[in-house]
Amino acid sequence: MRCLVCGRISFKLICKSCQNKFLQPNLFKRTLACGLDVYSFYKFSEMKNLIKSKYSIFGSTVYKTLAKNSFAKYAKEFNYPSAVYAIPIDDRPTPNFSHSAILAKSMKSKFLIPKYAKLRATNIVSYAGKSLNFRLKNPRNFNYTFKKDIEVILVDDVVTTGSTLSEAYTILIQNNVNVLFALTLADADD
Ligand SMILES: [Zn+2]
Predict the structure, then answer these.
(1) How far is the CA of 5 from the centre of ligand 1 (A)?
(2) What is the distance in A from the centroid of ligand 1 to the CA of 9?
(3) Does a structural domain hold residue 87?
(4) Tell me: the pLDDT tens digits for 142-168?
(5) What global pTM score does this model have?
(6) Cβ count near 74 (within 10 Å)
(7) What domain range includes position 124?
């Protein structure tokens, strides 16, 4: 096959050289108005094409490659005095795999336990290309179905206005969950 990025013949969907050149993560921090710190590994503008490929048949492979270069590396360095749960936001298969679940899965370590399908929107509405005003008027109405009194890292693929993460954060606080911070693949605030 050919590398998705450079087009050269490659055994991997994104060749090793492109992974080394373009997928080295940085940590960008943003603090949302609700107080939640959001760390992102990439700038959305630089990863647009790869992230948008999530809707293609290569989507899950691209996400696994991105996760291996970012979330998994981060998780390897992460340690904490007690178990921390990595909870993907609304990890609903769309249409055939869940982007946020792939990212959370790659974080599995001695200290980090991914938990799936614990935080799901009851209001299914697409936010793509929508304004903050629209997002605020159409909340996701998350339903949380896991333990209280635990430490959690929220996981999502893209942070845009932060309204989804803020809403998830609020629900978790109401459930006595201590959200340490959120981790996303890419920050679209640029
Ligand atoms: Zn390449």
Answers:
(1) 5
(2) 8
(3) yes
(4) 999 999 999 999 999 999 999 999 999
(5) 0.92
(6) 20
(7) 24-187
